[in-house]
Amino acid sequence: MQQNRALIRLDHIAENARSLKMRANGAKLCAVVKADGYGHGAAEAARALSGCADMYAVALVEEGMRLRLTCREDILVLVPPLTEGEALRGMLGGLIFTVGDAADLALVARTAEKYSLSARCHLKVNTGMNRFGFDAPAFSEISAGKMPRRVRIEGIYSHFYMPENAAAARLQYDKFLSLCGLAEKRFGRITRHLAATGGLLADPSYCLDMVRPGIGLYGYLPAGFAGTLPLKRAMSVRSSVVCSRPYVSGGAGYGRYSGSGHLTAVRCGYADGFFRSGGLGNVNSLCMDACLYSQKKEKYAEVCVLDDADAYAEKCGTISYEVLVRAAERAVKIYVGG
Q1: Which residues of 20-53 are buried (b: 16+ CB within 10 A; e: fewer)?
Q2: pLDDT, tens digit, for every residue of 252-300?
Q3: Which residues touch 112 (CB under 8 Å, ≥6 apart)?
Q4: Considering the domain 235-336, what is its CATH architecture?
Q5: What CATH fold (topology level) applies to the domain 10-218?
Q6: Buried b (16+ CB within 10 A) or exposed e, 182-203
Q7: Higher model confidence: residue 76 or residue 141?
Q8: CATH 3.20.20.10 residue ranges in the chain?
Q9: Contact indicator for 212, 198 with CB cutoff of 8 Å
Q10: How far apart are CA 202 and CA 199, in angstroms?
């Protein structure tokens, strides 16, 4: 088979979710399945998490609408809508929007009024990541103002930028709680959430009403939390031997070669989501749609090319998230254990 195979253990995703929820201090679980479930398949991951997850989170409205085809639970869109079309589709699909500034609120409210719909929203506040979200002065102004009649505020959230740093995390937590106080005076009791996988593991008090684990669901921990919770990796990627030949002369792939014996070509390359710097194969770098090994392997034999995204990410100077969302790009996903 020319395509790689991504073997995905749905039972591992479910077990990881249960382990994380047990550490969440009684908080609800919002399972982050953005980027097609970190490469594992969003719909399939959500099915595996049914009964454990209370809500799901995606990055984009389009992701939310695809997930809505198979999912009845609440879906939170983490990036604010940028067009009327996105806002309209999200409302028709019953998605929950993120609102991070006055312009986001105006867009959602204007769209809801124009089409006689209602919009469910969570307020995003900036406590230190400085990506998007209301700064404290703007949030105070919004909280004191009149809310558009078709917009319903159901939650408030932020995101730790360094959950592994106790001092920085505590400052963010305290700032977030003060903004929650303002919000609840204006909107009543709403869902508060701050912790993703790292925050959840950093301190039980950070879990509040809901947690949003992402990378932990798939068996990996963020920087600074290695060994804090045993998780099971959910994905491995397999490829096939295309050719195995005696080395005669010349180079090997894109580079010189001074070895001898056999060279084996395995059908895994750039467009399969792998990096030149990742050391896949052991002869030079990737060569278009293949990598080379300096040993004999049987033609058509199966080879595991990825089973530890952390180790591969370290070779590439990146993080497991970036590896996982790429590694199954051109692969056939095979689901087991669920």
Answers
A1: bbebbeebbbbbbbbbbbbbbbbbbbbbbbeebb
A2: 888 898 887 899 999 999 999 999 888 888 888 889 999 999 989 999 9
A3: 87, 91, 118, 119, 148, 150, 151
A4: Beta Barrel (2.40)
A5: TIM Barrel (3.20.20)
A6: bbeeebeebbbbbbbbbbbbbe
A7: 76
A8: 10-218
A9: no
A10: 5
